[in-house]
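Quick one:
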Amino acid sequence: MRQSLGETRSSVRERHALICPDSHERTTLPGWPGSSIIIVIAPQMGAKFTEYFVDVAAGASGQAPAEGIERFFFVVEGQAKLALDGKVHDMTVEGYAYLPANSAHVISSGQGARLIVIERKYVPLAGTPVPQPVINNARKLPVTRLKGDENLPLQKLLPEEPAFDCEVNIMGFTPGASLHYVETHFMEHGLLMLDGGGVYRLDKSWYSVSAGDVIWMGPFCPQWFGAIGRSNARYLIYKNWNRTPFES
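Output:
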């Protein structure tokens, strides 16, 4: 269906944002020559992290971020390769990697791929070693249940260890399922809808969301999601974690 002129579902507010594919603007980044970048969450909107899509062109590659920046990426479409510590890892759809700050690496694709990338300044914890890289595929991970609810499958993509200052999960909802309550907390989120859709409450606003939408939730933004439709809904969600409010 053709989009009406001047209309979009995207909305940017003081403590939250919904960024939809109908308003994506493409740009370039020095670390990703030859690829197309869509920045969807950035410090300019109030976030303390950056989240962006990379459409890796066939034969193109990307380099590690600046010093002190940790990176997480997830393969949305296509196939990619990660070169790290002398090894090359083949990554298919829903493959992902956590790369600690100052990890020299190269991400490439022979035939093209779409990635979602999350980057932030790593917050070390005194007396704790730095985290190790994590390379896996979400389709291989076990599924637990949020608060024991069979309608809310949950996959944790990163280890629950003090070395990690962030958490990335895949949250699922059967049709009609919802979060148990409106959450309000000091952590912030970056969310990508992977499948299905539903209704998201952000602060005092209500939004219809579907696959491909990205949401930023700032600290203490009231938030709630309910799945609507005949198929399961899933989203990839980041939050700062394992650090005090003074450090986050």
